[in-house]
Amino acid sequence: MFPTRYEEKEDQILCVLFGKFSPMTRLLKMSNVTNYNEVSKSYDSGRKAADAHVIKSLMENFTGKEVRDMDLVDIGCGTGNYSEYFMQFEPRSLTLFDASEGMLNKAKGKVTTSASSKTKLSFHQVVLPDMPFQDNSFDAGMINLVLHHLEVNPDGKSFPNVSKTLKEAYRVLKPGGVLTIITETPETIDGTWFGQLVPQTCKRWHKRFPSHTQMTTMFKEAGFSLKSALKSLMPSYLPGYGHLDGPLHESWRNNNSFWGLCTESEIQDMIDHIKQMKNEGQFQTFFEKHDQVYKVGACEIFAAKKETF
């Protein structure tokens, strides 16, 4: 099978920057859309730990434990926003890992600063789906807005790396442990207004996300019992979501890996389209027509349990 134009573009960029067979190429290929070593420098300016209170409640409800009595793992921790939130509850231990050295260094600085002497911390640079931890190590784990980075050649039909990640998570959780996942799905992607500015990118983006049905199937195949599936009707993980001029600015786009799939020509066409709509007084109408997050949800929040038999 011949690569698409986008796949050729992606491979060329990675090879030019890092060399075709370098270790860094593998790290970035695991993200597949974004150079997070670079993005880590400004990532926190436009992201926050949205719905962290929800996943805390799910963990405590389905494990029957309070966070302070848990060994937690933050899978694909990024800059540690979610781990920082959990530190205020003083978990027994907190393990963070990410493929990006830049993101992990940010997490170290952030979480260590807020650290309680009661919490044992550890940090690891790890490329998913591998999880180099012993069986039955953690009471709860979280995967927040990570799954779409895992597939190398996504087709929207099969998700071998996501599937293996779930199986690895099942392995490292203790019996009775809970895994929470926050992710977009194809069902929620179409509700974002800015996605309609670049429809071809949106089609590629779709292929990176398992549907709700595919997620429930993979949970079952991994051995989990799905306990909860919720939709958040607010795009709170992107505080700048409603900034209409946002797509015109690279700094705004860098806060969302969606834009990493755009070609340069798609970005320019989008900018020209926005400017035309603004000149014609139609941009607000476009936003109101295509902003459907309040109907279809911004993301889905899953909680699955490794049952004790």
Sheet with the most strands, sense and barrel status: 7 strands, mixed
Helix content: 40-55%
Low-confidence stretches: 1-30, 39-43
Structural class: alpha/beta
Radius of gyration: 19 Å
Give the mean pLDDT.
Answer: 87
Strand content: 15-25%
* Total of DSSP H or I helical runs spanning 4+ residues: 14
N to C succession of SSEs: HHHHEHEHEEHEHHHEHHHHE
Intertermini distance? 45 Å
Number of strands: 7
Outline type = globular
Largest beta sheet: strand ordering: 3-2-1-4-5-7-6
Topology (elements, then pairings):
Blueprint lengths: L4 H14 L4 H9 L4 H4 L12 H12 L7 E5 L5 H7 L5 E6 L2 H13 L6 E6 L12 E7 L15 H13 E11 L2 H4 L9 H8 L5 H11 L2 E8 L17 H4 L10 H16 L3 H8 L2 H4 L2 E7 L4
Parallel strand pairs: 1-2, 1-4, 2-3, 4-5
Antiparallel strand pairs: 5-7, 6-7
Task: Give a quick precis of the structure.
The chain has 309 residues and is α/β, with parallel strands linked by helices.
Characteristics:
about 300 residues, alpha/beta, seven-stranded mixed beta sheet, disordered N terminus
Structure description:
This protein has 309 residues and is an alpha/beta fold. Helix 1 (5-18) packs antiparallel against helix 2 (23-31) and helix 7 (160-172) packs across helix 10. A seven-stranded mixed β-sheet has the order 3-2-1-4-5-7-6, with helices on both faces. Helix content is 41%, strand content 16%. The chain contains 14 helices and seven strands. The protein has helices at residues 5-18, 23-31, 36-39, 52-63, 81-87, 101-113, 160-172, 186-189, 199-206, 212-222, 250-253, 264-279, 283-290, 293-296; strands at 71-75, 93-98, 120-125, 138-144, 173-183, 225-232, 299-305.
